[in-house]
C-alpha cells in the first residue's frame, strides 16, 4: 500500500458506508406519520403560490443569450492580461480593436432595446 | 516571406476593408433608415475589398500572422470568388420581394461576415484558423437561413442546419485534436513534416481524416453529409440560398484542397500529388464522388419545388467537382477551380430567375413557371433555359466547357468508370432541367398566373450572367489562364 | 503521480460518443444542443491532455476558441429554438416535418 492516494480511497469508502447506513437506519427505524402539512411542497415556509413551471417572457432568454456571448468574449482578456508586458503597445492596440468590436455589438444590442427590462 | 502581426497588416487590406464595412454598416443601420443606402454601402465595401484583392494578386506571396494564414494565388482566387458571389447576391437581393421585408442592415452585415469567414477559410494554414473560419461561415449561415420572420419553414430549416452543422464541425475539431496529438502542432507545414518523417498510426490517421472530412464535406455538400442541404435551400431566403449554393461550396473546396494538398500530401515532379500512404484516397474519393452525383441527380428527378430541385442538383455538382480531386494532379485541381467559377455564374443566374418568378407569383413550385415565356417579358424564360442547359453541360455553354475539363482530367488518368458514371448522370440531369424548360416554353399560362416583371437592376444582372454563361462556353481561354495561374500554393 | 494520457483520451472519446448518441437518439432540441456542447467539451479535453503531455500551449489556446465558438453556436441555436417554438408549442424534432425528403 505505497500509493499516496490510498487514504483518500479509505475516506471515500468510509463516507459512503456512513451515508448509506444513516439512510438505511432512518428508513427502517424512524416512525412514518404523514400529515397534510408535511406533504406540502416546501417553499421557504410560505404557502406555495401557483405552478412552479410558469412561462418566462422571451425577454429573459434574450438577456441570457447576450450575457453568454459577452461573458465568453471576456475570456480572451485573461491570456492577454497575463502576457501584457511582453506584447507591449501592439498588444494594447490589438485588444483595443477587439474591445471596440465587442462594444459596437453591445451598442447595437442596446439601441435595439434588447436590454430594456420592462 | 513569413511575416509577423504588424508586417502582415500591409497584405491584409481586403479583410480590413471588409471588416470595416461590416462595422460601418451595423453602426449606420442604427442611424439611417433608408434601405437602399445600406445595400449600396455594402456593395461598395465589397468592391473596395475586391480592388484590394486584385491588387494583391500581382504582389508577392507569403505567410501572414505567424503562419496563421497564407497569402497566395490560390487563396486570392477564392477570395475573389467569395466577393463576386457576395456582390451578385446583394445585387440580387435588391430585386427580391422576400428580402425587402427583412431587416436590411442585419441582413447585409451577416452576409458580409459570412464572406469574411470565407476569406479566412481560403487562406487558413493552421487548424485553429481553419476551424474558426469554418464556424464563422457556418454560424452566419444558420442565422441567415432562419432570417425570414414569422416563417415556420425558415426557422425549422435553420434548426436542422444548426444541428447537422454542429455535429459535423464537432466531429471535425475532434479529428483535428487527434492530428494535433499525432503531430504536436496545429500548423499545416509542421503537420506535414511530422507526418512524413514520423511513423503515424495508420488507423488513427484514417479516423482523424474521415472526421475532418465530415466538417469539410458538409460545407461542400457531398454524400453522406448532404442531408441538410435540400431543407435548408428550400427554407432560406432565396438570394441567400443562391449564396449558400455557390460561395459556401467554393469555400469548402478551398479549405479541403488547402488541407489535403499542401497540408498532407507531396507534390511529385510530374505534377501529380502523392498522398499520405496507407489509405487508398483516390478509391475512397472516387466512390464518394460517384455516389454523390448519382444520389443528387436521382433525388432531383421527382422534385416539384425549384429551390429543392436546385439543391439536389447542387449535390450532384459537388460530385462533379470532386471528380477533379480523385485524380490527384494539377490538371484535376485546375478543372475544379474552373468549374467553381462556371457553376457560380450559372447557378446564381438560375436562382435569380427563381427570385423573379417568386416575386410575381409567390410560388417556387414548377407550376409557377407555366408558360413563363408568354407572361410579360420573355427574357427570364430564355435566360433560365440558358442557365439550366449550361448546368446540364450542353455545348456551347460554359457548363459544357467546365465538365469537359473535368472529364478530360479523369479520362487521362484512366478512371473510365467514373467518367462513364458522370456522363450517365449528365443525361439523367437533362431530364429534370429540360422539364422546367418545357414547362416554361411549351405549356400555356393560366389566367391566374402573374406576369413576371423585370426591373432594370434585375434585367442588367440577368443579362450579365447569361452573357457570361454564353461567352465562357465559346471563349474560355482567359478563364483557363486565370485558374491555372491561381493554382499556386505557397508552402515554404 | 500522473495518470497516463490514454486515460484522458478514452474519457474524451467516451464523452464524444455520448454526445453523438445524444444528438441521434434524444427527442428534445435543447438536449440535442447540450449534446453538441458535450462533444465540443470532449474535444477540449483531448486538446488539453495532448497539450499538457507535450508541453505546448497551442492546444490550450485552441480551447479558448472552441469555448467561444460553442457559446456562439449555443446562442444562435437558442434563438432559433425560440423562433421555432413560436409556431409549434413543442421541441420534439419529430413534429418538425414541414421539410422532408
Question: Would you give an account of this structure?
Answer:
The complex is a heterotrimer of chains A (118), B (492) and C (101). Chain A is mostly helical and 118 residues long. Chain A is 66% helix and 0% strand. The longest helix of chain A is centred in the last third of the chain and has 28 residues, at 84-111. The termini of chain A are far apart. In chain A, 1% of the residues are buried. The mean pLDDT of chain A is 84. With 492 residues, chain B is mainly α. Helices cover 74% and strands 2% of the residues of chain B. Chain B is built from 20 helices and four strands. In chain B, the strands form two sheets. Chain B has a two-stranded antiparallel sheet with strand order 1-2. In chain B, strands 3-4 form a two-stranded antiparallel ribbon. In chain B, helix 10 (202-220) packs antiparallel against helix 12 (238-263), helix 14 runs parallel beside helix 17 and helix 15 (330-361) runs antiparallel to helix 17. The longest helix of chain B has 32 residues, at 152-183. Chain B is globular and about 70 Å long. Chain B starts with a helix and ends in a 6-residue tail after the last helix. Chain C is mainly alpha-helical. Chain C has three helices and no strands. Chain C starts with a helix and ends in a 16-residue tail after the last helix.
Low-confidence stretches of chain A: none
* Backbone structural class of chain B: mainly alpha
Q: Please describe the biggest sheet of chain A, giving its number of strands, its sense, and whether it closes into a barrel.
A: none
> What is the strand arrangement across the widest sheet of chain B?
1-2
Amino acid at each position: 500500500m505505497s500509493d499516496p492516494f490510498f487514504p483518500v480511497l479509505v475516506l471515500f469508502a468510509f463516507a459512503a458506508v456512513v451515508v448509506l447506513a444513516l439512510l438505511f437506519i432512518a428508513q427502517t427505524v424512524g416512525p412514518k406519520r404523514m400529515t397534510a402539512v408535511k406533504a406540502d411542497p416546501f417553499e421557504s415556509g410560505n404557502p406555495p403560490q401557483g405552478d412552479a413551471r410558469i412561462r418566462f417572457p422571451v425577454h429573459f432568454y434574450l438577456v441570457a443569450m447576450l450575457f453568454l456571448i459577452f461573458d465568453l468574449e471576456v475570456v480572451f482578456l485573461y491570456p492577454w492580461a497575463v502576457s501584457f508586458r511582453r506584447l507591449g503597445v501592439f498588444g494594447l492596440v490589438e485588444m483595443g480593436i477587439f474591445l471596440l468590436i465587442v462594444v459596437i455589438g453591445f451598442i447595437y444590442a442596446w439601441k435595439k432595446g434588447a436590454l430594456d427590462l420592462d | 516571406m513569413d511575416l509577423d502581426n504588424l508586417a502582415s497588416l500591409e497584405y491584409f487590406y481586403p479583410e480590413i476593408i471588409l471588416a470595416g464595412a461590416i462595422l460601418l454598416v451595423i453602426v449606420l443601420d442604427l442611424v439611417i433608415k433608408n434601405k437602399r443606402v445600406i445595400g449600396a454601402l455594402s456593395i461598395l465595401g465589397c468592391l473596395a475589398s475586391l480592388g484590394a484583392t486584385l491588387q494583391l494578386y500581382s504582389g508577392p506571396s507569403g505567410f501572414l500572422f505567424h503562419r496563421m494564414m497564407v497569402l497566395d494565388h490560390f487563396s486570392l482566387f477564392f477570395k475573389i470568388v467569395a466577393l463576386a458571389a457576395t456582390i451578385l447576391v446583394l445585387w440580387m437581393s435588391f430585386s427580391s420581394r422576400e428580402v425587402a421585408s427583412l431587416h436590411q442592415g442585419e441582413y447585409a452585415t451577416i452576409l458580409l461576415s459570412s464572406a469574411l469567414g470565407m476569406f479566412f477559410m481560403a487562406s487558413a494554414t493552421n487548424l485553429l484558423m481553419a476551424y474558426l473560419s469554418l464556424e464563422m461561415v457556418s454560424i452566419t449561415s444558420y442565422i441567415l437561413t432562419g432570417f425570414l420572420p414569422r416563417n415556420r419553414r425558415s426557422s425549422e430549416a435553420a434548426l436542422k442546419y444548426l444541428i447537422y452543422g454542429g455535429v459535423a464541425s464537432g466531429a471535425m475539431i475532434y479529428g483535428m485534436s487527434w492530428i494535433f496529438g499525432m503531430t504536436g502542432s496545429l500548423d499545416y507545414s509542421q503537420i506535414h513534416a511530422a507526418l512524413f518523417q514520423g511513423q503515424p498510426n495508420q488507423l488513427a490517421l484514417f479516423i482523424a481524416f474521415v472526421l475532418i472530412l465530415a466538417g469539410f464535406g458538409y460545407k461542400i455538400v457531398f454524400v453522406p453529409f448532404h442531408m441538410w442541404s435540400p431543407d435548408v435551400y428550400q427554407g432560406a431566403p432565396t438570394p441567400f440560398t443562391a449564396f449558400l449554393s455557390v460561395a459556401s461550396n467554393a469555400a469548402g473546396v478551398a479549405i479541403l484542397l488547402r488541407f489535403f494538398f499542401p497540408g498532407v500530401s507531396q507534390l511529385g515532379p510530374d505534377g501529380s500529388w502523392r498522398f499520405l500512404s496507407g489509405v487508398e484516397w483516390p478509391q475512397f474519393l472516387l466512390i464518394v464522388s460517384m455516389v454523390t452525383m448519382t444520389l443528387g441527380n436521382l433525388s432531383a428527378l421527382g422534385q416539384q419545388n425549384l429551390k429543392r430541385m436546385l439543391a439536389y442538383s447542387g449535390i450532384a455538382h459537388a460530385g462533379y467537382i470532386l471528380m477533379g480531386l480523385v485524380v490527384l494532379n494539377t490538371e484535376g485541381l485546375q478543372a475544379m477551380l474552373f468549374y467553381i467559377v462556371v457553376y457560380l455564374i450559372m447557378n446564381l443566374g438560375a436562382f435569380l430567375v427563381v427570385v423573379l418568378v417568386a416575386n410575381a407569383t409567390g410560388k417556387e413550385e414548377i407550376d409557377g413557371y407555366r408558360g413563363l415565356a408568354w407572361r410579360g417579358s420573355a427574357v427570364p424564360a430564355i435566360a433560365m433555359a440558358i442557365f439550366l442547359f449550361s448546368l446540364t453541360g450542353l455545348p456551347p455553354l460554359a457548363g459544357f466547357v467546365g465538365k469537359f475539363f473535368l472529364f478530360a482530367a479523369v479520362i487521362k488518368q484512366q478512371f473510365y468508370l467514373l467518367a462513364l458514371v458522370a456522363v450517365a448522370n449528365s443525361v439523367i440531369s437533362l431530364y429534370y432541367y429540360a422539364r422546367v424548360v418545357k414547362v416554361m416554353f411549351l405549356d400555356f399560362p393560366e389566367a391566374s398566373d402573374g406576369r413576371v416583371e423585370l426591373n432594370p437592376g434585375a434585367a442588367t444582372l440577368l443579362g450579365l450572367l447569361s452573357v457570361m454563361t454564353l461567352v465562357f462556353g465559346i471563349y474560355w481561354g482567359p478563364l483557363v489562364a486565370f485558374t491555372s495561374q491561381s493554382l499556386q500554393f505557397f508552402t515554404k | 503521480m500522473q495518470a497516463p494520457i490514454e486515460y484522458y483520451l478514452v474519457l474524451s472519446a467516451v464523452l464524444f460518443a455520448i454526445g453523438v448518441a445524444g444528438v441521434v437518439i434524444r427527442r428534445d432540441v435543447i438536449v440535442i444542443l447540450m449534446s453538441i456542447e458535450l462533444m465540443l467539451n470532449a474535444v477540449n479535453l483531448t486538446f488539453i491532455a495532448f497539450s499538457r503531455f507535450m508541453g505546448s500551449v497551442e492546444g490550450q489556446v485552441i480551447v479558448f476558441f472552441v469555448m467561444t465558438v460553442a457559446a456562439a453556436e449555443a446562442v444562435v441555436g437558442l434563438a432559433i429554438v425560440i423562433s421555432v417554438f413560436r409556431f409549434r408549442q413543442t421541441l420534439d424534432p419529430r413534429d418538425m416535418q414541414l421539410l422532408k425528403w
